[in-house]
């Protein structure tokens, strides 16, 4: 029974990845949007300008969907087809790689056409920076950085946790990541209330961000880069970023693309001076397109590894079950001889 569940999880994750590649994000009735409305309702009932209130909010907003996912997984433990469909749907909803690459290509097209007004209007689809005063180089840099970071958040993260914990892992990761986007940023309202969500997101992404960076290094030749250079920049610059995870992905991407990232970022009234990552010049529209291709390749590799890991657990379980049966048979035979 356990083996059938793990097989269904692996097949479901693969199908979910194929659905994302074919259709991108669901255009209507997106489950993540529904979760956002649920989390907003929880926030309205729990908000206080204090960290304990934020911790309670995070526990409820993450705990409820994870509990429901665990219940759904338990109810389908003897129904591999239903479980496969359930995991496929959750994986499709959790992944955002195709839409992320599409947004990057749209930005590249607008920058190539010199339409800065449209490019500035496009940027909020990728990140929260104020685009009003950004020129073409800064718009390109923001896009490359966002694509690199979100390759972990929107692709590798849910696949990693799906490989580790199946359906509850996929749902739980997406809930944590969504909460971080909602309340984890620094602002007057969320400086304390959002701390628990931000820290939980940091913890959930410690491994996926580094897996993303490693896959980026491996995939560098696909976009004309060198894996050696990408590895060097990742190891040298990955820890310079204020985020413990984003810098890993961005540094590896900078090395793979041969560009320099980092600099001055404006978020409304807040200004951040980010350290430079990489050794090249500022990215341009061509580099934005290369970043989109790199993201897709990394996502495809992560999907294959995640499905293989879940299927590998199936094979390991089969081997353990076989060994247990053999041991029981040997013991029974010994008992008969006595």
Automatic annotation (TrEMBL):
<keyword id="KW-1003">Cell membrane</keyword>
<keyword id="KW-0812">Transmembrane</keyword>
<comment type="function">
    <text>Converts cobyric acid to cobinamide by the addition of aminopropanol on the F carboxylic group.</text>
</comment>
<dbReference type="InterPro" id="IPR004485">
    <property type="entry name" value="Cobalamin_biosynth_CobD/CbiB"/>
</dbReference>
<feature type="transmembrane region" description="Helical">
    <location>
        <begin position="53"/>
        <end position="75"/>
    </location>
</feature>
<keyword id="KW-1133">Transmembrane helix</keyword>
<dbReference type="GO" id="GO:0005886">
    <property type="term" value="C:plasma membrane"/>
</dbReference>
<dbReference type="GO" id="GO:0009236">
    <property type="term" value="P:cobalamin biosynthetic process"/>
</dbReference>
<protein>
    <recommendedName>
        <fullName>Cobalamin biosynthesis protein CobD</fullName>
    </recommendedName>
</protein>
<dbReference type="GO" id="GO:0048472">
    <property type="term" value="F:threonine-phosphate decarboxylase activity"/>
</dbReference>
<comment type="similarity">
    <text>Belongs to the CobD/CbiB family.</text>
</comment>
<keyword id="KW-0169">Cobalamin biosynthesis</keyword>
<dbReference type="Pfam" id="PF03186">
    <property type="entry name" value="CobD_Cbib"/>
</dbReference>
<comment type="pathway">
    <text>Cofactor biosynthesis; adenosylcobalamin biosynthesis.</text>
</comment>
<keyword id="KW-0472">Membrane</keyword>
<dbReference type="GO" id="GO:0015420">
    <property type="term" value="F:ABC-type vitamin B12 transporter activity"/>
</dbReference>
